[in-house]
Amino acid sequence: MKPLKERDQAVVGVVTIVLLVCATAAAFFAKDLPVLGGRTYQAYFTESAGLSAGDDVRIAGIRSGEVTDVALEGDRVLVSFRVDDADVGDRSRAGIEIKTLLGEKFLALHPDGEQELSEPIPVERTTTPFDIPDALTELTRTTDQIDTQQLGQSFAVLADTLRGAPAHFGEAVDGLAALSQTIASRDQQLAELLRSTSGVTEIAADRDQQVQRLVSDGNALLTELQQRREAISSLLRGTQRLSDELRGLVADNQAQLQPTLDQLNQLTEMLQRNQDDVGRTIAAMAPYVRGFNNTVGNGRWFEGYICGLLPPVVNAGPLQTNPTSCELPVPSRPVGGD
Length: 338
What we know:
About 50% of the residues lie in helices and about 15% in strands. It is α+β, with helices and mostly antiparallel strands. Strand 8 (about 295-300) and strand 9 (about 300) form a beta hairpin. It is flat, with a radius of gyration of 49 Å. The chain starts with 8 loop residues before the first helix and ends in a 36-residue tail after the last strand. InterPro entries: Mce, Mce/MlaD, Mce_C, MlaD_Phospholipid_Transporter.
């Protein structure tokens, strides 16, 4: 075996560079490798509930992976996630849960089953932290079962019992009593409001596709505006440059333009002073213009005869002209008659 220094140094350099690139790529993408990066699974949810790519995947409260993608698929949300060092069975369950009070979420996974999970976890085995339509429906159903009369009486008894408390506490109790009376008197209105809320929720659920389309169209509009922003900025910059050039042109030619503008102002003032005279002149010229047009006008043209402008040549003599060129031409032979 040849020593390293006796081998082709170019080949050795290329092999070294390739090995370094492979090692760097393996270090950066180790999580995506099938051996070191765990396995990827999927689950269907009714809504994303604020879950996003990069959030934790936890099993029994311990971080075991991360969410890799959250995508809309029809009327469901498909969540893809990676799990490290854990077996996920075919009866596993998943749920989106709240991680912090600031609204961060994580995917809670509950492995179950003897066979390896090969299909996405169905909606029947997934849960979300809240479902607005179901919550409002349950609120309406629960509120309808409240006996408002009995609730009002309970508040009244509580107010009477605590009426001997200190003054500030008594004011609070009086307010509580007034609240109970208001609730009792507005029983029908509250029930109608809750029923209307339930109806609005059902309508919103029925119009889910239209809402999704509206959001998609809004995103397309914002994307187009973003693309046009550079063109609009370029147009505004060009307009600013044109304004600067015109301002400089006027400043450079102020001395030449000022006399012309002064004379134009004088002419305008003179016409303004003689406006009545100009109007009378135009009115007086109207009959003359009509008569002139009727006399010499022919369609869009004027006809006229200038005597002696170009005298005609009678014969071949270079200096001989028609001595009677300014007289009207007379035919050489009579026209008609004897």
